[in-house]
Amino acid sequence: MKEQALFINFHPYPFFERHGRSLLPTAEADIHLITRNRAFGGVRGVDPKDFARVTVVDARYEAQWRAACDWTLDTNPVTRVMAIHERAVLFAAELRSRYGLPGTDVETAERFRDKVVMKQAVLAAQAAPVPDFAPLDSPDDLDALDWTAGRWVIKSRWGLGASEVHVVDSLDAARQVCQMLDLSGSQYEIERFVEGDIYHCDAIVQDGVVRFANVGKYTANPAAYGPGTSFGTVTILGGELYDRIQRLSARVLGALGLQEGVTHLELFHTPDDELIFCEVAARPPGGIIPPVIEWQFGINMVEVSLRQQAGLATRVSSTATATAEADGVCGFVAFYPEAGAERGLTPELHKALGVVEHLHSGTDGDGKGGVRHSTDFLDSYVVRASDETTLRRRLQDIEVEYGKSAR
How confident is the model over 134-169, as pLDDT tens digits? Predict the structure, then answer.
């Protein structure tokens, strides 16, 4: 008998199409799709025949999501709950816990969503160094901090996409930020600013064991997004730092108690060669990282997560990492929208610069020339090269050519 799965979808539906095939296991599970309305792309391309039921809700109102999910679970023999988007992961875990369904429960999910609870657990388990941090529930909390030793970062405990991040260099600056924020309800934290490069580690966990992990280095700070700027990542395929990052990630995931799932962890590598934990999410990496991993290893992290949550068999090749280096190294560079700018690379440049995939979104940005979050890209280019040095040069060349293409 097929699993019956409730899928809470906060993405535009075309997100789940890759190279002409669907990442959703609709042939192997009876999926009850609850999705965003047409204005938010939730039904674009949906064929109702692929699903046990399709329910469309207004993306702006949480009460509609909850009512639709409760009705589906109360009236159908649903055995699994699925969610990919960061904003839906905790909600899905709440439903699993309330209805006694398998998968990540609400206590575990909260450790991957609330950045204070997350760092407390990592610190308690001595899984990794963490920045000095504290809940920020009142401007008075600022007085307990040491303002003589550098900058601090004020950010949402529940935020995503590097949004709601404020770097402050003085107590007065922090107070000014707090005047703009609603500090009620345990919504914010403050942590010490860390100097260094930012890396990510994307893992697949089965039976409490990391079965696969990808390591990459960001080409820019994710919080520095803005109109006309760029962002990217370079895959790291081996070396002493690569091994240290993988071990840190495994310790953190163990400390947070994840038994099964796909994760995206970020950390700092300081000038003193120290690795300091930043944060981790119990969902696939966002933006263009999944296509890069697919080109590098032949693994689609979104598809793996969907299959795991649907209770379906998931095979992760133990040789994926070992054989990847022989095929070269992949990365991406992406460009944020900018008012009045129209750019792009010619097909000839794609071939010359090793572009294996170009993703274009005509709907990103806030419609006024602004950028909403760190993965709000207009044009993205997945690139392959023979080695890391050549890859970095190609990414830089693409930035130059993209800038020259303005018309």
Answer: 999 999 999 999 999 899 999 999 987 567 899 999
Helix (H), strand (E) at residue 91: helix 86-99
pTM of the entire predicted model: 0.95
Q: In what order do the strands lie in the sheet with 80-83?
A: 53-57, 29-36, 3-9, 80-83
CATH: 1.20.810.10, 3.90.1720.10, 3.40.980.10, 3.30.1490.20. Which one for 132-192?
A: 3.30.1490.20
pLDDT in tens, 281-325: 999 999 999 999 999 999 999 999 999 999 999 888 655 554 455
Q: Which CATH superfamily is domain 197-404 in?
A: ATP-grasp fold, B domain (3.30.470.20)
Three-state secondary structure readout of 27-76:
CCEEEEEEEECHHHCCCCCCCHHHCCEEEEECCCCHHHHHHHHHHHHHHC
In the block, tokens 């204070």 appear at 116
CATH class of 3-102: alpha beta
Which residues, in sequence order, are CB contacts of 209 under 8 Å at separation 6+?
A: none
